[in-house]
Amino acid sequence: MHLARLSYQAGHWSGPFPAVPGRATLVLVFGAPGFMDDPSALEDLKAAYPEGLILGCSTSGEIHGARVEDGSLSVAVAGFERTPLKLAGAEVHGAESSREAGAALARLLDAPDLRGVLVLSDGLGVNGSELVRGFNDLFQGRVAVTGGLAGDGDRFTRTWVLHEGLPASGRVEAVGFYGDAVRLTHGSKGGWDTFGPERRITRAAGNVLFELDGKPALELYKSYLGDRASGLPATALLFPLALREKAGEDRRLVRTVLAVDETDQSMTFAGDVPEGSLVQFMRANFERLIGGAEAAAAGLGVVAGAPALAVAISCVGRRLVLGERAEEEVEATLQALPPGTEQVGFYSYGEISPYANGTCDLHNQTMTLTLIQED
Description:
single chain, alpha+beta, Thrombin, subunit H, 2 domains, eight-stranded antiparallel β-sheet, 7 helices, 20% helix
């Protein structure tokens, strides 16, 4: 595998488009939401790699090496010698079509030699839990599926995914990696602290939460936010929920808010919040957030001496909490990986990765890493 990394900022590319040898070329692009209004730089990229498979989405901050940028494009170009690739896409228009979108992509990409899938989705018009359920229905954990939901800063207004190289809303796009030469490993860690009593979800529908312990969910959330309640839904990112199915279960998923409805006092999350489940509020621990990012990288299996591409997808909530220290978590991931690893990625509205191994899950408020190598 041959790798190159470049960026676009303030109207200029960081250098000429590199020629990357290989039988199959993957171009990963993570960019500011505003490129939907002016896609000229994306058109440049499409023209530079007419035979390449271009996969990308909008962000809540672009990760480029050890830096976190805004208003830019972070690009990685990977040339594979012995790994066939296939790009597939599907439309998704809300929770009701999310599962079928995931299932449709799984069917399009499935093959006996499929080794992994990297998926990027619209970040607003989708139920991420249902999306990954569509993949799991077919793959049943035999194929590693990782990726994330597109971001729009802390605005939650509009996100895009690249379709045929240009920005489009309401889509999910994915690339499949095939054959025995490719190696995809993944890691996902949080670093938040739980606090307060554990509460039961007493009324919910899919990814919409109405009541906790019989009380309106939004009203309860506001009591924790205090003066920050006026900044909803963005300020809810500071207090995500840890969710587990029942008492005594160690496995917890994190859920974060996408939207609020003052009329019915409900909150819409990036993934499912099933009735009967238990949730507990979480808050940031700066050192643990950064340590979680490092742990996500440290747990990856690495082929010594082989070029490595790390795709880092972290949650917008982590960035809001870390503030100026956000770069510390992307520096931590790079430091835990072999020298020479190329890293690109973005801050997202949801992270897709297996919890440990097997079927994929929709996470929030985690640092998720996918490491791609070719033997």
